[in-house]
Amino acid sequence: MAKKHENYKELIWTLAKTDFKLRYHGSVLGYIWAILKPLLLFAIMNFVFSSLFNPKGSGIHYYSLQLLTSLMIWNFFAEGTTAGMNSLLSKAQLVTKIYVPRWAIIIASTINATLVFLMNVIVIIIFFALYHFMPSVESILFFALYIVLTYVLIVSFAFFTAPWYVKLRDLSMIWEVVILALFYATPIVYTLQMLPAHIQRVVLLNPMAFIINFNKEGLIDNHFAPGYENLIFIVIIAVIFFLSVLSYRKFSARIAEDI
Description:
The protein is mostly helical and 259 residues long. It has one domain. Helices cover 78% and strands 0% of the residues. It is built from eleven helices and no strands. It is globular and about 60 Å long. The mean pLDDT is 84.
């Protein structure tokens, strides 16, 4: 049994590394794009929104650091969910011609997105150093916790959607619209406090809004969600993951035939 698990780990890691290499194969800048793409997006949004949402005297601390961190986490979520949803269809030859555990293909696709995010974490660290700002140890630990929860959300989404995407290709178009709507419904370019109190409660029902909002407040202002709220949130994420596994087991049986 131990050997079997070790083989699965090796398979997942091999698939993830292969996807990561193929992603930048043939481009002039290669792996630099993993850092350059989100940096360019940050530069544009920081230029456009810094004066709009962070005018002088607004009281928002280190708006650029908040925006950069939020964008990196959001890109992790957006790229991870999209890759996870596409994973089985993009690896159709593996699914139909040789036996490879389908769940391993899904996990490998999410790890590929994680590798890109880990490269972006280096950028976050550099920017915090340039601003001479050092977050507290507690806020760094909460940052790590929220990243783990984000990854669990990505895997859950992938388990839900990957088997269905094989049959319903429209899911890709739908998700593009939904994720754009979620971007603006998440306090990334603005702060949650800019919204009325009753709207804030609705916004925080979005798991990514909860993660990004309290991640920003933790890193910059050392302000954290109450312990019971974090505990409830973790339980909700765990339930989502459990339901996603059940869904995957139910709908994955005919994947090879549907492809």
